[in-house]
Amino acid sequence: MKQQWLAATAILAAGIGQAAAWEPNKPVEIVVPFSAGGASDQMARTIQGIIQKQQFTKQPIIVVNKPAAGGAEGMLDIQKSAGDPHKLITTSSGIFMTPMATKLALNWTDYTPVAMLAQDSFLLWVNAKSPYKSAGDLMTAAKAANPAMKIGGTSSKREDNLLVFAMEKQGGTKFAYIPYTSGGQASTQLSGGHVEATTNNPAEDLANWRGGATRPLCVFAEQKMAYTEKVADGQSWADIPTCASQGLNVSYQMLRGMFMPGKVSKEQQAFYVDLFKKVSETPEWKEYLARNALAADYRDGEAFVSFLKADEAKHEKLMTEAGFMAK
Amino acid sequence: MDDLASLIAGFQVALSWHNIGFMAVGVILGIIVGVLPGLGGPNGVAILLPLTFGMDPTSAIILLSSIYWGALFGGAITSILFNIPGEAWSVATTFDGYPMAVQGKAAEALTAAFTASFIGALSGVVLITFVAPLVAQFALKFGPAEFFAVFLLTFCSFIGMGRENRAKIIASLCIGFLLAAVGLDSISGDLRMTFGSTELMRGFDFLIVVIGLFGVSEILLTVEEGLVFKGKQARIDLMVVLRTWAGLLRYWATLLRSAVVGMWMGVTPGGAIAASFMGYGLAKRFSKHGKNFGKGEIEGVLAPETAAHAAGTSALLPMLALGIPGSATAAVLLGGLLVWGLQPGPMLFVEQKEFVWGLIASMYLGNLAGLIIVLATVPLFAAIMRIPFSFVAPVILIVCAIGAYTISNSIFDIWLMLIFGVVGYVFKKLDYPLAPMILALVLGDRAEDAFRQALLGSGGSLGIFWANGLVTTLVVLALLLLCWGPASDAIAALRGRGRSDIEPAEAAR
User: Fold this and answer.
1) DSSP-derived secondary structure letter, B231
2) In 10 A of CB B160, how many CB atoms?
3) For the structural domain made of A123-251, what CATH number should be given?
4) Contacts of B335 in chain A (CB under 8 A)
5) What is the mean pLDDT of residues A9-29?
6) Chain B contacts of A290, Cβ < 8 Å?
7) CB contact under 8 A, B347 and A188
8) Which residue among A132, B8, B82, B282 sits deepest, i.e. has the most Cβ atoms within 10 Å of its Cβ?
9) Which residues pair with B15 in a beta bridge?
10) How far is A273 from chain B (nearest CA, A)?
11) Measuring CA to CA, how many Å separate B88 from each of A8, A88, B199?
12) Contact status of A223 with chain B (Cβ, < 8 Å)
């Protein structure tokens, strides 16, 4: 409770006086533009735990969820906090897609990129009892299905929706895409047999895979995943074939990174770049990546910015093709 | 019996001295968090989450779930004393709790609320203990159509069971639906009715609306009655607890009904909010004292509290067994589990036996500790009612404003709270019920999502709502409840007319 007040005063104070120090002199707030319990929230809380445990800063780290309007609430908050060096925001592909889908005046170039931490994969999941053995089986069945085969995912006009659109284009068929509020909900609906498939991230379906309720068919990537430790059914993440190898030539990955508000000094940016570099080298972070089957992909500076530019162009093309751009 | 042995082992884990200490600290922190509107269970748990990173997972989850229990108990305190529900599920508690406090029976109302919470929670824990795997399987049967049917059931029972003017109930519901539609539409991914305002993008947060509609409007009404208002008399001795207890046995049917409704709603993620309203609505219809509901009837406090807590506790079950949180606070707890590397889901009961049973044992003990602590504070809280209103009112307003601001650090929300205060005042003056509006605001967009998800899947065919036994039963039950009220009113009216026809004749003779 006390921390909440502290956070409130920190925001007020930061608005009035320019903090010149390039080492934080107030609690640092990590804004998560998604709700508590989701993948972005887990990442932020893991980082919070690591920073505090390793004592990388003297100031406490606070995680604040601002999930409204598909993450736009959190992004607007960062937009408004230009010049505040005590704020960070976790980002995913949403940093391009939310402005594109809502026409809100938000742009990542107004923020300060800090570091990219990982890439998240997408898999094609089916119920454990489902007859489909490969993406090919599923696509063949989808063509014959009437009414259209149901595929579940998170939110509308976002990553999962784009993937299902790409599958439709590749396979020349139509799906009924059902948007749920979280990947966990989509996974539960899949294990209850209410949808035929989902396009969840590894972490979102991990529990049900291990519990024998769902199983992955393939990964939407050009290469197989890296983790060779057995997870369930005697299979590891690395044993899952790529969708392209099963005749479904779709690949898609999502960045996970950190941004600061705009108009911060080089020294302030450098402090956080260094901080996340240290975080990304801890054993706890590596364990977190392995547990969620995230691809380790640390980038900062120019490497991060050029990745963002390429990724934005790619999303603009996909969103336009799918007709998801706001008019 | 393997499970029973595990439970006893769980008790041994939970009963160590430092875990009992965490339990007491958690309950007290939870009460504080629950009493301050706006802070609420989810925020309280989220803020304290980092403190627990250094602990072993079992102690940490005991601490956090004790905060959860404390917040559940605490929510009832402000509802009864100031007509300000601290949590969504305490709204129904204000209907009779606050009138009781006004009549000087605050201590009875608090005792009833706490005891009912305990009974509700206990029935939820028993459910978790014995039928966890079975119930988890049942919850999987709920697809979008079934979810919609559950929400439909709640709305229909509210219209059918309400004793207010039905047209007014429906009008109030519709305003709630309208408010719920503001913000991001999760099915289309578009913004709705925000009129280009970034503040409206968040939609209307339930708590801000509730603080305004209930808390602020109540202050306006009291001010209108004149500032000479005296502090309400309240006896303040612990004996009142025992006296209230002695009277509670009479209401066993209400307690049982509410506990069953609560457990059912908690497992199907209709959740504690819907459960509390349903528990209240059903008690109002079936109780012998139904006519006194809303005027300070103790049964009207018992029913929603039992249901809410049975649901709140049962909601932890789908979280542990399936990884889907049944409530916002459960969602934060879920986040906590993940941070400690515990993956909720079907495997948790197999792989982390000690943890799961430690948690379940702590539910029994945490609730008991909670009950003892809150009952001890009854005289203290009841004494607040002795302070003259002119001193208390400004403090309540400030607490309300802080609460509204804290939810998303926005000044706009304080204005919104005041606007809803005026709306609530007008509603009360015109005799429109507030509860249906709140219900629609909380469940409206979820019901809409479920409805549209179901239709997306069926290709637009409404047949999905009677496609299997479960969904058909729910829909039929909903329609029955909807018609029950009007039908029984009509029968009563017919009988009444019949009697009045005969009476003059008898008088003439």
Assistant:
1) P
2) 22
3) 3.40.190.10
4) 36-37, 41-42, 45
5) 62
6) none
7) no
8) B82
9) none
10) 23
11) 24, 31, 22
12) no
Nearest residue, CB atoms, A52 vs list B50, B185, B344: B50
pLDDT tens digits for range A281-308: 999 899 889 988 999 999 999 999 999 9
The predicted structure's pLDDT at residue B312: 80
- Window 93-122 of A, Cβ < 8 Å to B: 101-102, 104
Give B-chain residues touching A286 at CB under 8 angstroms.
none
Please give the CATH superfamily to which domain A23-119+254-322 belongs. Answer: Bordetella uptake gene, domain 1 (3.40.190.150)
Strand A112-121 relative to strand A295-300, pairing: antiparallel
Q: Which residues are CB-contacts of B393 (< 8 A; sequence separation ≥ 6)?
A: B219, B222, B223
| pTM of the full structure | 0.81
For chain B, counts of helices (H) and of strands (E): 22, 2
C-alpha distances in Å from residue B371, one per residue of B10, B88, B257, B308, B368: 21, 21, 21, 16, 5
Touching B: A residues 288-307, CB under 8 Å: 291
Domains A23-119+254-322 and A123-251 belong to one CATH topology: yes
pLDDT over threshold 50, residue A14: no
CB contact under 8 A, B144 and A102: no
Q: Do B346 and A46 touch (CB under 8 A)?
A: no
The DSSP annotation for B28-68 comes to HHHHHHHHSTTTHHHHHHHHHGGGGGGS-HHHHHHHHHHHH
State whether B346 and A208 contact (CB < 8 Å): yes
Distance from CA of A201 to the nearest CA of B (A): 15
Q: Is this complex's ipTM strictly greater than 0.90?
A: no
The predicted pLDDT at position A45 comes to 81
